[in-house]
Amino acid sequence: MVGTDRTVIRDRIGHVFADPSLLEQALTHRSAGTPHNERLEFLGDGVVNLFAAEALYLRWPTADEGVLTRARAELVREASLATIARQLELGERLTLGPGELKSGGFRRDSILADALEAVVAAIYLDAGYEACRRVVLPWFEQSLAALPVGRPEKDAKTRLQEWLQARQRPLPAYELVSESGEEHAKVFLCRCNLSEPPVSAEGEGTSRRLAEQAAAAAVLERLEPSLRHP
Length: 230
Known about the structure:
mainly alpha, 230 residues, three-stranded antiparallel β-sheet, 12 helices, Ribonuclease iii, N-terminal Endonuclease Domain, Chain A, Double Stranded RNA Binding Domain, dsRBD_dom
């Protein structure tokens, strides 16, 4: 164990547990024995993704699904969660086995991110959704503020269309080349064709829409010199 003072960590988190054993479990790595935090981490992963999705949905009312998905991925990626865990000083309070202690596991992004998700789950189980949301959302405020709110990145099809329209050139044509795989796991291959300039490229995706986006992105890559020098 790196740290034993749970009062300190409760103050950092901003939640007083009715069931302190939940916090103990959330801060116990599997290397230290059972009960450890892996099941809590599984639950916390879902809760964190829900909070992030809700926050982005409310903040970016005009952003499409692709933009929201990319922004959520940025918020909940391992390095981002580990940064929040460090701000909350979770690493100093983790219970680790001798091997992880010796190798500095309390500094490792993967362990810190898992611990953060486990703590979120512990709060959720201890106090419910609304109380958990009130405690956890402020942890992400800095990360949310760093995202380009109001300036979501345009998807590839939109950027390609705008580039062509600005030059009064014909819009692209998309065609489905093939689809393969089982019904529940299909892969679509689409082609994006330009007549002026004469460029075409293919892209794959788990839906026709995503395959068209990938094809448009491939065309944009081929047009890159023109995009830099109109």
